[in-house]
Every structure is written in C-alpha cells, then in structure tokens.
C-alpha cells in the first residue's frame, strides 16, 4: 500500500510484533511488519519515516541469531529497538549483551534518569512490562542511559544525535501503561510523522486496486454474514459494480435463523446481486460419521471451494474470488519463526485452499486488523449490528458439536446457542464479550428431572474477552445471567440435562473446541 509515510517494523519473531504495528496505526501512522531480512527496496517503497526493531526469542550473541541488515546500519532514519531490538543495536555498535542472572519477566518499575524526547510527558517512575533473560552490560559509544530498572541498568538508552533509541521493556503491551506515550513520542517527536492514517483512507485505494486486479469479467465474493466478507463485498461493489455477485453458502452448519437473517439483511441494505446456495445436504453427507476435528475442517474447506467453482462456472466463468482475509492471517502464514510453529488447526480459508484451484483470489483487507475493518465498515455504511457481530467460523457448528454430526444434534446445539445469545443480548452484554456460543459435548450424564431419571447431553457455554483472538480470557459473566441461561436450556432444549461454563483461557485452550 503506498502511503505518504509509514513506520516499518522489522520482525524478529516476537509474539508482540503484530501488536507494535497495531499500536502505531492506532496512533495515526500507517505501519507494516516486514521480515527482518527484507531488502532495502521493499522497505523504501513504504516511505518509512522510522524503523522499529521488534523483540524476539533469540539471543543476539548466539550462532545463527538474526542480525541487523547492513542497510539499517547505514540508514539516516530514526530507529527504535524493543528488547531484542535494543540488544541488536548494542551488539552491532560495539556494546555488550550477556545472559543475566537477574532475568525480568512481567511487571517492573523503571526510573527515568535523563531527559529525552522518547520519554517526554511520562512520570519519572512508572511501571512497564519486561520479558527478557539477556541484558546490556555495556552501551555502545555515543549512547547514554535514559531509564533504569532494578535489574536493568539500561532499561532505556539513546544516541540522541543519531536518533537511535532502545527499550528493554515492551511499550506495545497494555501492561506498560505509558507505552502508548513512548510510541507516540517516537512517532511525533522523533520521526516527525504527520499522522494522517485512518482506516477509512484505505477505501479509495482498495477500490482502485480491485479495478486493476479484475479489469474485466465476472467476479464472485464469498459472503458469510460476518463483518470481513461484508466489507470486502462493499469495496468490490464500489470497484466493479454489476460485475460482482455474492455467494452465500448455507452449509447446514449455521446458527438458528442465520441463513434467512443474512440474506434478508443483505437484500435490505445493499444493491448487490446475492446467490444463496443451499448446500446443507451436501455438507452433512460429506461429514457423516466424521469425528476428527481436522478431518471435519478439511472436508468443509474443500467443499466450500468446489461450490464457489461451480457457481463461478454458472456465472459466465467468473475468474475471480473476493475473500475477507485479514492482516493477522497473512502474518501468521508468512513471517519468520512463525511458519515453523506447529499447526494448531486448519482455518478453512487460510492455507486450506486446494492447489488446483483456478479462481484468482482478491483480498482487499489483507493489510487491515479487525478493528480497522470495522471502522471501514462503518465508513462504508454497513449497519452497526453487522459491524459489531461476533466472528463466526466458516466451519460453523461442525467445530462446536463434538463427535459425529447429525441434523438432530445440530438442532439441539442451535436451540441452546440461540437461548444463550438471546439472554446475553437481553442483559446488554453482547458487546462486552467478543465471542460467545454454545458447544454440544459428546458426554451424557445422569440427572433427575420431575422425579424421574435422565441420562442426557451436556451443553458447554463459552464466552471470551479478547483484543485480537490470538489470546483470550473467559468472560466474567454475571452469575444471574449464567443461572438463567442454564435453567432455560435444560427446560427448553429436549435431551439436555446439564450445562457447564467454560472457564479456560487461550492459551492453553483455544476459543473454539475443535
Ligand atoms: N457460509 C459461507 N458462505 C460463503 N462464504 C463463507 C461462508 N463462511 C465463510 N465464508 C468465507 O470465508 C471467509 C472467512 O471467514 P471468517 O469467518 O474468517 O470471516 P467473516 O465471516 O467474513 O468474518 P468474521 O470473522 O467476522 O466471521 C469469509 O470472509 C468468507 O469469504
Ligand atoms: O473463518 C474461520 N475459519 C476457521 O476455520 C476458523 N477456526 C477458528 N476460527 C475463529 O478464529 C478465532 C480463533 O479461534 P481458535 O482460538 O479456536 O483458534 C475465533 O474467532 C474462531 O471462531 C475460524 N474462523
Ligand atoms: N523479548 C525479547 O525480545 C527477548 C530478547 C532475548 N531473547 C532475551 O531473552 O533477552
Ligand atoms: Mg465468519
């Protein structure tokens, strides 16, 4: 994306790399994450006003550890190193980094010891979040400390003349309450950014890009009812008008009333052609008897694509497929030290596309985060309810119904899920949690109802609070709400005699159960 200014974050594999980009964008400056070994021309094309070096799991002195590219050392741009980034700066400029006995993980208090634009408007003593086992023992020539912590003589350091700065702590995490101010200082006091980035700015550019990517012919957009695909559809429609047809697949794995609600809302609000494909039987037949979570996901992913291909052939051989892929999906599959990570689950639209797929994929949101997509959705006139809808996974209820899938079991789950969401909304708490749903377990247990014995199914209720769905905590829903949901489910849903609330965070659990 060509912006007139950007902050480029070099990724050394920190779990927080994405978060740095996000914080910079929140502060009004466009930012992208690039591999630490990206070449200079890739970075120059982004018009950088400054460079941030992320943290990382390695030790700078270890053999094979990722290093600073020569072009960074030769650059005149301001550079901010965070944790591993600071250690790299020191390592390359003649300072000394060593393993420390006083490792710091978590909360620490730092004291500002010298005036610096980086730490302007911040109390002299304040708490920060640390996560390191190595530390700087000697600063390079030209550098001086600007903050200390009990275990880090160089919690922050600077070469003001060159505009190189380093932090041993992580300003990007919420546990560093002044972290936003530190980043703001770097962007505006040091890099002199103008600060004109807004998610809605990207709309015009995205529209032009879609016109170039699909200059002629028919285009389909896979529409799910979620916010991502709706925003992608609106952008594509602005770009190519009537050449666009949206395809909504009723895979039989949707929630109660969802198929009707999605097509009705869509038709009420948009003048975009929509085809609803009733593929419920096809999906359920393919899933019959399948209990393995990964196998379910693969069957579903493949079916989706075959249906899109079939619909494309019926539409004058449409050659393009618009998808709502977001930036976190892209980063997950491309950044260093990430592609070696073990696979937890196959997301149906990422990495799961068949090799022989002929449709060319167009992904207008591939540079955005979810909150930015929501802002763009609002700017494009997407109804608020749609903008704030909880995400719903493409494999749908198949990954919330453990064990073999049948129409009857799906109906049980749909009913319980509808009750939970209805009560959550009635309590005014839908937007206080980021995702909430019911899960049907393959577990029967004994109960007593109306003096007779039951041996029936278990429903688990899950609600999470999260910023980015990468980590999550279970939502502290009020007991009164849980009590009401539990009693309604057992009373109203035939075949269920027990309801449990899932109190697992991610990690170690994931949000979905499969
Ligand atoms: N039932 C469906 N019919 C057609 N396309 C679908 C369906 N379910 C998922 N998709 C496609 O898969 C993509 C990824 O799904 P995903 O759930 O990540 O995004 P979303 O549904 O657009 O938004 P959200 O994350 O808010 O649910 C969607 O953008 C859409 O293109
Ligand atoms: O479109 C999707 N296709 C998938 O295959 C898929 N699997 C998980 N999810 C959603 O991703 C987020 C994180 O989920 P997990 O913690 O279960 O991995 C949560 O928001 C999940 O709902 C999916 N979305
Ligand atoms: N969070 C980090 O960047 C850690 C850097 C380095 N691996 C250390 O332990 O000190
Ligand atoms: Mg979805």
From TrEMBL:
Q: Any idea what job this protein has?
A: Catalyzes the synthesis of GMP from XMP.
**Keywords assigned by UniProt?**
ATP-binding, Glutamine amidotransferase, GMP biosynthesis, Ligase, Nucleotide-binding, Purine biosynthesis
Instruction: Name the residues that span the membrane.
Output: none
Q: Which CDD domains match?
A: GATase1_GMP_Synthase, GMP_synthase_C
Tell me yes or no: is NADP among this UniProt entry's keywords. Answer: no
Q: Does the keyword Mitochondrion apply?
A: no
Question: InterPro entries, per this entry?
Answer: Class_I_gatase-like, GATASE, GMP_synth_C, GMP_synth_GATase, GMP_synthase, GMPS_ATP_PPase_dom, NAD/GMP_synthase, Rossmann-like_a/b/a_fold
Identify the catalytic residues.
Answer: 83 (nucleophile), 170, 172
One Pfam family of this chain: NAD_synthase
| Pathway named in the protein's UniProt entry | Purine metabolism; GMP biosynthesis; GMP from XMP (L-Gln route): step 1/1
Q: What is its EC number?
A: 6.3.5.2
Q: Which reaction(s) does its UniProt entry say it catalyses?
A: XMP + L-glutamine + ATP + H2O = GMP + L-glutamate + AMP + diphosphate + 2 H(+)
Where, in this chain's numbering, is ATP bound? 224-230
Q: Subunit structure, per the record?
A: Homodimer.
Q: What is this protein called?
A: GMP synthase [glutamine-hydrolyzing]
What are the residue boundaries of the GMPS ATP-PPase domain, all occurrences included?
197-389
NCBIfam families with a match to the protein in the record:
guaA_Cterm, guaA_Nterm, PRK00074.1
